[in-house]
Specification:
The structure is a single chain. Helices cover about 10% and strands about 30% of the residues. By secondary structure, the protein is of the alpha/beta class. The termini are far apart.
Amino acid sequence: MKLSELRADSFTLARDGDFTSLGLLGQRKKVKLTLVEGKREIAALEQDADVSCVVTDKGTSGSVPSRFGLCVADSPRAAFISIHNWLATDTEFYGRKTSCSVSRKARIHPTAVIASECVEIRDNCEIGPRAIVLERSILEEGVTVGPGSVVGSVTGDLFGDGISAGQAEPTGWVRIAKMVDIHGNCTLNCPVFGGETSIGEYTKFDNLVSVGQGACIGKRCLLVASCVLGDDVVIGDDVWVGPNATIARGVVVGNKAYVTLGSVVMDNVEPGKKVTGNFAIDHDKFLASLRRIR
């Protein structure tokens, strides 16, 4: 789509350009229209190879390189949300809505809540008491959703600064592969700007696990109680994430990595590595450092 095809009631078109997705700086979305809030974000813009078009304010617009399509607005964040909502409600940019499809072989507790559209629940799934499956959720064969868990929730801190995104329409999906086991009071957030939050087959969630929008979790992982995965986190196969561990937005954790209890992971973790601490470092280095202190 071209910027010139958008409804321009919230911005002025300064330079036309093509885009196929919307996303924030750093999100892994190709040919995207993104939001730049101030000159402090120009360096991040130039490092993000996925960006093709920008929404920003007049004062920052002169610093945006000419290779980017450009929209200028008094309130760039409000304009960005307005563009997204128009695409979501008045076009098929994010795809069409579908009806609800629940297999007769699925077991749904009477107190569970299932959205009336854009939900697919396949054979042998089990949805527990007071669990909620919201729009744009796909549960493949044999998925278990425990009591009080929510699939398809929307984050309240979309821009990562504690300021509400307002009425941004969720347009992404949550896709849970076969035989995933989700225990009680977990939350799996739906991406707002299209794309998927995906969980690989045979992965298990303990109680109170929180998964940010756009996260991608591999096969046969174990996420232990009260761990938190930020937006757009990527977890490989066979990864163990310990209780109360936190993995920051956009971090990539390689296959067979091990994140110990209470760790705060701010940097990518290589395959097979074991990390510990706040902020997390190689486990053996952490223990050696601890011995020196003692």
